[in-house]
Amino acid sequence: MKIISACLCGINCKYNGGNNLVPALKELAEKENALLVCPETMGGLPVPRSACEIKGGTGLDVIAGHARVTDTEGCDLTDYFLAGAYEVLTMAKKAGIDSAILKSRSPSCGAGKIYDGSFKSRLIDGDGVTSALLKLHDIQVITEADI
Ligand code: SF4
């Protein structure tokens, strides 16, 4: 069993109210009865919501308390991102899941590359908050871009 980002399977949980459907992943999710998650809405954020990026580091730095997640207006939404990440981790542990396919570049789900906090589409090396937390707990994370 796998975790897959809900937006990749056509669920309209993206910040702008849309999704990031990848038909092959939706099929895979149905075939393997994957656990669909959206850490941002699971952490309490609404749809639609403001776009967010990690400022001052990566998801790992957010978990360590050294960086924050802010929206385009500068509002600090870090606590929502952490709550969602820990909720996903709890669900993964309960279900015995050891791998995830998450949405690339997201401040929650991104793995390997994320936006740099400038809201100028600039990428840096690093993981989103949820991906970083799952990796810390030995859950393998890849993105739709790796498939
Ligand atoms: S990238 Fe992750 S947090 Fe963002 S909408 Fe998709 S599932 Fe939700």
Major sheet summary line: 4 strands, parallel
Cofactors, ions and other ligands in the entry? iron/sulfur cluster
Number of strands: 8
**Which structural class matches the secondary elements?**
alpha/beta
The gross shape turns out to be globular
Percentage of β-strand residues: 15-25%
Count up the helices.
5
Mean pLDDT: 98
Distance between the termini: 17 Å
Q: Share of helix among residues?
A: 25-40%
Structure description:
The protein contains five helices and eight strands, in the order βαβαβαβαβββαβ. The longest helix has 18 residues, at 78-95. With 147 residues, it is α/β, with parallel strands linked by helices. A hairpin with a 7-residue loop joins strand 6 and strand 7 (123-125). The chain has helices at 23-32, 39-42, 59-63, 78-95, 129-136; strands at residues 3-5, 35-37, 52-55, 68-71, 99-102, 113-115, 123-125, 140-143. It has one domain (3-146). The chain has a four-stranded parallel sheet with strand order 2-1-5-8, with helices on one face. Strands 3-4 form a two-stranded antiparallel sheet. Iron/sulfur cluster (SF4) is lined by residues 5-7, 13-14, 38-40, 103, 106, 108-109.
Summarize the structure.
The protein is of the alpha/beta class and 147 residues long. It contains five helices and eight strands, in the order βαβαβαβαβββαβ.
Summary tags:
alpha/beta, 5 helices
List the helices and strands and how they pair.
Elements: E1 3-5, H1 23-32, E2 35-37, H2 39-42, E3 52-55, H3 59-63, E4 68-71, H4 78-95, E5 99-102, E6 113-115, E7 123-125, H5 129-136, E8 140-143
Parallel strand pairs: 1-2, 1-5, 5-8
Antiparallel strand pairs: 3-4, 6-7
Bound molecules: iron/sulfur cluster.
